[in-house]
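QUALITY CONTROL LOG
STEP: pairwise intake check
CHECKER ROLE: data steward
CRITERIA: each record must contain a sequence immediately followed by its structure tokens, with no blank fields

ENTRY 1 OF 2
RESULT FIELD BELOW
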Amino acid sequence: MNSSAASTSSTISSTTTPPANVISSSISKNNEHQNNGTCIQIAEAIAAQGIDDITVDFYIRSIFTFLYGFLFVLGIFGNGGVLWAVARNKRLQSARNVFLLNLIFTDLILVFTAIPVTPWYAMTKDWAFGSVMCHLVPLSNSCSVFVTSWSLTAISLDKFLHINDPTKQPVSIRQALGITSLIWIVSTLINLPYLMSFEHVEGSFYVQPGETPYCGHFCDEANWQSENSRKLYGTTVMLLQSLTQKQRSDATSRKKKVNYILIAMVVTFIGCWLPLTLLNLVKDFKQEPEWLKRQPFFWAIVAHVIAMSLVVWNPLLFFWLTRKQKRSGLSKILNSTEIVSSFASRVSNSIRRSTFRRNNIDR
């Protein structure tokens, strides 16, 4: 068996919960366990370690299915609504909104990849999405974290430079598109080791030749040369993200004229991803507390739900905070109450004018 088969998800955006991180640590014990003669069921392997996995419970699965379904629907309509609104209003097609739309686009990537795939894999303990998706899903979701982080940094720096020197020429749409392209390219290059580390494997990967394999297929970080290289990569990535977070904080706090929606977005981004990042960090360094060891799958899904809630928080922040910014064009489009009241007011005025004219004619 590959020595890195027991590896857990990276400290960057973990989008799966590989059963290997639970079962491979007790392979010798589980091969002595009774099985059906063809393969060892994952549930048996987990139970053999004394883990009462509550993610197999019907009610727990129902709750997570509802939560992920809720995030999926709101994520599509919320983020899709923002894209539709900006596409229809030329006043919103500014350079700064290019970075803003980059966040919305990454949210949609999470909606269509991490949100449907992760709960299925974590609860069934069987990868049913094929080899290509085993590579693309971790890559797309890891890139989403980097792109979101660096797009917020770009917005922060642009805002800071504008506040520091109002006469300075703002970033053009072409420059914003160029910066966005560079962000995606660099994010992809940084995540190539993460992409190459994943492998779509069968249950026989985790046992010695001649031993009974595990049932099912898995998407696991099976290609790291060593455990230390995986830890080094994950820690480096986490530090890199921390540096960009510090730059965003510095750029938004040096002046009193701060962009409150930007601060809210930064705080929300950090708050949503922090539990999952810390969980993966303690797993990588094998420092899990007892409560995490007792329910490794349950707490991983809980942390992942919190991280994925970002796809809902961003549109809500745009809606709520832009209501207070009367000069922002987004507030007029995203605030449905304002749209309805404005439309009703216009209809009411038209009716009054028509009534007034008819009364004058009758006279």
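ENTRY 2 OF 2
RESULT FIELD BELOW
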Amino acid sequence: GLVLWTVTLALEAALAGTLTLFIALAIPNPVIAILAAVGWYVLARLSGTLLGTAGIPGEGQEALMAPASGVDAGIWLDRGMYLVSLLLPRLDLMAQGDWLVHAPAITGMLALTVLQCIVHAGLIATAAFLDFRRRAF
């Protein structure tokens, strides 16, 4: 459990570090860059929770999500969260604390984590390349 947790924590830190470095270089204002990096990390870390609660109205939310003039806001919010989750890595699946106490059931979790990091590192590298070409040092 400790080895899997350590590997996924290192992958998560590497992914967050590369995106933070890209954001710091791409956005000239340091306050906005820090807020963007923290917002990305928090949203990526909470994406599993937000997906789990999407589409499940809680008590008292029926009136809040009621269709207004034929538009169902709940469906659009669910679809929007699903689209956002496609662009973000699922950091909630990495470095889970219960892996340190209980033996993790490794059912492709490490492969999924590595694949997810490779895909998002490729996206970050592509964005960095396009930003580098745009600036034309």
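INTAKE CHECK: passed for both entries
DESCRIPTIVE NOTE, ENTRY 2: The chain has one domain: 2-54+75-135.
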